[in-house]
């Protein structure tokens, strides 16, 4: 297929579909495509099933097996992701050379931006934990433990990719009672990624702030990094570019405090206090009580002055 080909819609519905696929000022929530390779079973099969539960409702699943090799020829994978209108994908497969193989990636401009191949060393599914689970639409809180996440470009991109994988939609405010689920990722010294999922319990502490306890609810997985394909700096910078309409321009002389109040600073010229007219200002008018007191003071001063004049004459 030629890269210069321009698709023209033939129907009204087709035009709406093509317009929805174009870049928007405010992008919708990202959908994730789950698909399996020639063979898929064991722990990777269970992980794909649990990942579907964690990503609901922003997930699409292909039930048929696909003869795809993402690192050798990603064209068919890019076609399926574009056809299903998804921005993320998870490809699960298993073989003798790479057992329990999981490939996580994301798409930009119909091309693979980042792609990381993980091997599942140990896995405990959601069904392993016989306790109450989290609701479907609860947004998880993501925690990345360890200093290694910011040491190499590969781990930095993997952290960003995991954030996109488990993030559902953006939120502007956080309520303490609404934080119920936390997913923790720990990078050990031997480059093993430990994924743990907990339920947040708010206990009474005798104070205003509650005591927080974590209860593991699954899934629990240990990953090893096998292969990775990250985008170049120019392509990655292009994917993060924001439109000019959404950039917030900084306003001068306006600040915000910790409580969210807005404070403004006004610059005035030099004022001559001698020429300010204060009599006609309503805010500076005397009340009736003040006028009565001033009259009484004047009368007392006149009486005192009259007594002094009489004493001087005598």
UniProtKB/TrEMBL annotation:
Any GO molecular function: rRNA binding
Annotated SMART domains = Brix
Q: Which parts of the sequence are annotated with region: Disordered?
A: 257-299
- Where do the Brix domain residues begin and end? 30-234
Q: Which PROSITE patterns does the entry mention?
A: BRIX
Mark out the compositionally biased spans (Basic and acidic residues): 286-299
Q: What is its main location?
A: nucleus
Mind telling me which InterPro entries this protein's record contains? Brix (IPR007109), Rpf2 (IPR039770)
What GO terms describe the biological role, i.e. biological process, of this protein? maturation of LSU-rRNA from tricistronic rRNA transcript (SSU-rRNA, 5.8S rRNA, LSU-rRNA); ribosomal large subunit assembly
UniProt xrefs under Pfam families: Brix
Q: Which GO terms describe its cellular component?
A: nucleolus
Question: What keywords are assigned to this protein?
Answer: Nucleus
Q: Indicate yes or no for the key word Transport.
A: no
Q: Where in the cell is it found?
A: Nucleus, Nucleolus
Give the family, as the similarity comment puts it: Belongs to the RPF2 family.
Return the protein name: Ribosome production factor 2 homolog
Q: Which organism is it from?
A: Glossina morsitans morsitans
